[in-house]
Amino acid sequence: MIPVIREQNMLSATIFRMLLALTIHHTLTADVPPTGVAPETSSPPASPATPGPPERGSYNVTNSSDAVCLLARMGLQLNISFISSPYDKTVQEVLNVHPNLVKSSGSCDPDSATLMLTEDNITLTFSFSLNSTSNKYHLSGLELSAAFPDVAKRLVFRNTSLNYMVGTLGHSYMCQKEKTLSVTQDFSLNTFQLQVQPFGVSGDFGAAEECDLDEDDMLIPIIVGAALAVLVLIVILAYLIGRKRSHAGYQTI
């Protein structure tokens, strides 16, 4: 009977050693990360930070006689939304127009004028119309044509039924404050320190007709000044009335 017991003990020890080896191997393999290279994943690029106010540029258009027929000074900022082809996701771009990189051109007719600004792969066209009956002009159309690496074909945004920058013939239109011009659902234009005159130019800008934003800024100090003047007047009148009553009281006595 003794040999049988010894064989059983040896079999138990062998099984125990095998279980211990399996446990140690599982622990070591669980702690060691795989050495294979993780697959690359593509994600849409992060939206760029919004740039600061753009630099103000000076542009002009000359007619067939080489005389200036359109003047413009303004800072321009483009707000564009489009679908990126690689990621099938809407991307919003805010781009400043850089005057030192822009090539300007255009044309002037008796009742219409255009200003075209081109920078790299972006072309921005302003169209102005003149009503000869009322002698009023306005910005009637804006068109932006742009090419981006993430878009398969060139983007074009156009609106020919606008009514911005309304001015009088021989006068310039001015808006010093930042103003947003909505063009289409996916494109709007921010203007800064704008002054433009598309008709009746005689050497330089004519008298400026200011936009509502600038007029509101001027109206506030006028109202405050008028209120202070009224307050001072009330104080002076109250002082004079009080002084007159005091003199009348002395005479009665």
TrEMBL record:
Q: Which superkingdom does the taxonomy of this entry point to?
A: Eukaryota
Biased composition regions of type Pro residues, renumbered to the chain: 45-54
The record places domain Lysosome-associated membrane glycoprotein 2-like luminal at 54-201
Give the record's GO biological process terms.
Answer: establishment of protein localization to organelle
What keywords sit in the KW lines? Cell membrane, Disulfide bond, Endosome, Glycoprotein, Lysosome, Membrane, Signal, Transmembrane, Transmembrane helix
Transferase in keyword set: no
User: Which region is the signal sequence?
Assistant: 1-29
Q: Which PANTHER family match?
A: LYSOSOME-ASSOCIATED MEMBRANE GLYCOPROTEIN (PTHR11506), LYSOSOME-ASSOCIATED MEMBRANE GLYCOPROTEIN 1 (PTHR11506:SF27)
* Protein name, UniProt field: Lysosome-associated membrane glycoprotein 1-like
* Protein's organism: Carassius auratus (Goldfish)
